[in-house]
From TrEMBL:
One Pfam family hit: MvaT_DBD
Residues annotated as domain MvaT DNA-binding: 82-118
UniProt xrefs under NCBIfam families: silencer_MvaTU
Protein's recorded name: DNA binding protein
Length: 121
């Protein structure tokens, strides 16, 4: 893109933003918010309070937060080791999940309820 085309594009964007700004200036809702902010700041100055003081009064937990909250990773409970002992063969299986190949074979052969009764821990 040529410098002239870039200039004209930016000039057009600026004109659009200025038109939007002028329309916002005539918005009564915005005028009310601006008046409220002016009065609030004057009141805070009169009593020597800052916005942080007010936030601390209204929401004490917010005062302890940092300006950029750090995401807290949820700690997952570690899976417990399950130990199964086959009374027929004496074979022992230690697993944390249900995808153990031999455990699946036992459950197919003997039934899940029977194999679950073999759990020692």
């Amino acid at each position: 893109m040529s410098r002239l085309a870039e200039f004209r594009k930016l000039e057009q964007q600026l004109a659009e933003q200025l038109a939007e700004l002028e329309s916002m200036k005539s918005d009564s809702g915005l005028k009310n918010e601006m008046e409220f902010e002016r009065k609030l700041r004057a009141l805070l100055g009169e009593y020597g309070f800052s916005l942080k003081n007010i936030i601390g009064i209204l929401d004490p937990a917010a005062g302890r937060r940092t300006s950029t909250p750090t995401p807290v990773k949820a700690a997952h409970k570690a899976r417990e080791v399950k130990i199964y002992k086959n009374p027929n063969s004496g074979e022992v299986i230690e697993t944390k999940g249900g995808n153990h190949r031999q455990l699946k074979e036992w459950k197919t052969e003997f039934g899940a309820d029977v194999v679950d009764s073999w759990r020692t821990q």
